[in-house]
Specification:
Elements lengths: L2 E12 L5 H5 L2 E11 L2 H6 L8 H13 L6 H15 L5 E7 L13 E7 L3
Antiparallel strand pairs: 1-2, 2-3, 3-4
Helix pairs in contact: 3-4
Keywords: Folate biosynthesis, Lyase
Protein name: 7,8-dihydroneopterin aldolase
EC number: 4.1.2.25
Length: 122
């Protein structure tokens, strides 16, 4: 059985990108997370110790995303996935979506970004 914990719309200012102004000024990124785990125990016990703290997930995600300036969203999202899997042993897999709504693209668009899924190796 796989259950899901999710965090959507986490807005973080960071300095990722290949253009000089992206690394100097930075911009807003939006992160969505899906954390795949088994929630059968906390659904019975009602104890935080039996699940994953959303607050800790947000703190871990923010630190992983902001602590290093990456050129590619793929690498920034990979850092988030790696941090979540290493800090939360209950999480079997994670899907990270990074939106870059103000990407320097000469076009009118609502959003661009990437989505990646990483899981533990057996």
């Amino acid at each position: 059985m796989t259950d899901t914990i999710f965090v959507t719309g986490l807005s973080i200012h960071a300095r990722h990108g290949v253009m000089d102004h992206e690394t100097e000024v930075g911009q807003r990124f939006v992160i969505d997370l899906e954390l795949y785990t088994d929630l059968s125990e906390p659904s019975r016990t009602d104890r935080l110790a039996d699940t994953v703290s959303y607050a800790e997930v947000v703190t871990t995600t923010t630190a992983a995303f902001k602590n290093t300036n990456y050129k590619l969203l793929e690498r920034a999202a990979g850092a988030v996935a790696d941090a979540i899997l290493s800090h939360f042993p209950r999480i079997r897999a994670v899907k990270v979506t990074v939106h870059k709504p103000h990407a320097p693209i000469a076009a009118i668009f609502d959003d661009v970004g990437i989505m990646l899924t990483r899981s533990r190796h057996p």
